[in-house]
Amino acid sequence: MASTGDVVPVTVLLPSHSYTLTISDLAPGATVADLKRAISEQCPGNPQVSGQRVIMQGRLLADDEVLPQAEPRVVHLAVHPGSWTTSPPSSPRATAAGLPSVAPVVNSPPVYIPPPSNEPPLPLTLQLSSLPTEFVTHFHANALRILSGQRAAAWPGPMELSHARRIARTVIKYAGLGWPPVLDEDLPTDVDPGKGVQYTSVLVDGLPYLALASPDNVPTPAQVKALQVLTYTFPLLPLMKHLPRPSPAPTARNQQPQAQQGAGGRPVQVIRRWGINVRVGGAPALPRVPEQQNGEPRVVFDDEDPRAYFPPVPEFRFQFQFQLPPGRILLQLLFTMSRAALLIYFFPPARQPLWLGAIIAWLGWEVYVVLRHTAVINRRAGQQQQAGDGVEGQENGVNGAPAAALDGAPGNGNNAGGANPGAGGAAPAADAGVAAGPNPPASLAADPNANELARLVDRVANMNLAGESKALSLAVQPPRSAAGSAPIPGRGPPAPESPDDQRPPELGAVEAAVEPSLVHRSTTFLALFITSLIPAIWERRRARLRQRERWVQNMFVLGLPTETPSATTTTPAAGGEAPPQPTGDELAKRRVEALAGWRRAYVERVISGEAGDDGEMM
């Protein structure tokens, strides 16, 4: 231990600049603040007191602490870069050195050794080089030259710089490293060494570095551009060694022996441009015609396909498609959820586990029915589109029974209205006139794989539609004379005359058009009200009603004729001609006039657009 009167010097180590300073004029009991002031006065660069940090034995010392008197007193000093008032001290080991002409060496993978051949060996620089690495290294070295005030070097490659940039960009992008946009622009060539920020070249641990000599100067635009390049090339260069290297194709190199000899039997210099001489999925490129350079013939292999860096791999694409259901389906699901929520909210017993489970099961069934019904409709629509437009007409028949329309198909068992199924066909009368139009469109054929519950849902949805369709399929024919029967009040249009005084075939349709009773109306209203609470059933019924409305528009507005001529035609009188057949608006007008009661009211509502969403006839 030193005595109280002895002064123990303080050794200050500055590791960032490899500098050591000894301060021996500190009084006994000096504090860390006194040491900082002494360092600011005696250390080259005169660092400010506020920018100094003193560390002793791994602990940061506060300004009010007293320096220990034990020997040795060694502290470490850390100075903020902006606290130097003058140039910082230089390392004793630092020596001036010129900027290296090449950029830092990048480790390369093992070099492919080709098999022995008669071809002259490739230069070592070409064997070790890779075009993407050379391109990035070239830009990195030029950026360092511009920062130090030197002019950028020219591109040393045998191909143009733009072509080399395209290949390097493709290879680096294929490797997933990302291509910096700043490398698409050339570095400036007009560099003034006396302007901008000044750097000096130093060697630290045997490696060249650029040291900032004028931190207060403003960098020139060229230096700013160089700094932008360095921000990308510094992290990119260590990754370049992981790029796949193009290996020369092990093909016979003596396939062109004539091209390897020039005039006079002299050997031809073979140059492979940057080792990119592999074609993916094909044979290697043939050499060009020998050309002369400096009196020596040479052959250049120009095959720089970037795909040569990567072996061909099978392409795999995963596509995920998600399509939102139509708005009407979302609306149905929303209404179903709303009904369940209101039921649970207003009825406390519904919150019990048993009833709650039943409600959840009911909701699940409703959602399943809606989605399944939508899938069935889409599948059938696709099948109909593939089959063609005339398939449905061939299956149902032109003069098929009206009872099969909409829901009267076999298996539905719905012949409401007490109509005779056998009398439903709109058969032509004995006398030709205006024949009946096509029947209302039939319902979709029952799916043989559908379960009984689905068929029951279809049967409920098609309630009363068969009888109403039968009433609308009445054959409309004008009477031959004024002796025709008069309209029967409340029983539809007059029946046309029959020459044989037999029951006309359309009489069954007239009977089906009887005005419904009050009991029938009330029962139908109650049944429809209950079915409207179930979206799956109501949606199917709406589809049938829309289909029937389109048929009404075609028959009673457009006056479309029958698809096939009537089986019974009018026999013209002796020496006379058959009366002209009405068509178009006249036919539609006659059809409307032939209706009466609720049938005419329904047709007029459809024509005027007042049918609404319900589309019911009664």
Structural class: alpha+beta
Task: Report the C-alpha radius of gyration, rounded.
Answer: 49 Å
Can you give the helix content as a percent range? 25-40%
Mean pLDDT: 66
Overall morphology: elongated
Largest sheet: 5 strands, mixed
N-to-C SSE series?
EEHEEEHHHEEHEEEHHHHHHHHHH
The order of strands across the largest sheet is 2-1-5-3-4
Distance between the termini: 119 Å
Low-confidence stretches: 93-129, 247-263, 266-289, 298-304, 313-320, 390-449, 474-512, 562-578
Supply the number of helical segments.
15
Kindly state the number of beta strands.
10
Instruction: Work out the strand percent.
Output: 5-15%
Number of domains: 4
Give a quick set of tags describing it:
3-stranded mixed β-sheet, 4 domains, 5-stranded mixed β-sheet, 618 residues, Ubiquitin-like (UB roll), alpha+beta, 15 helices, elongated
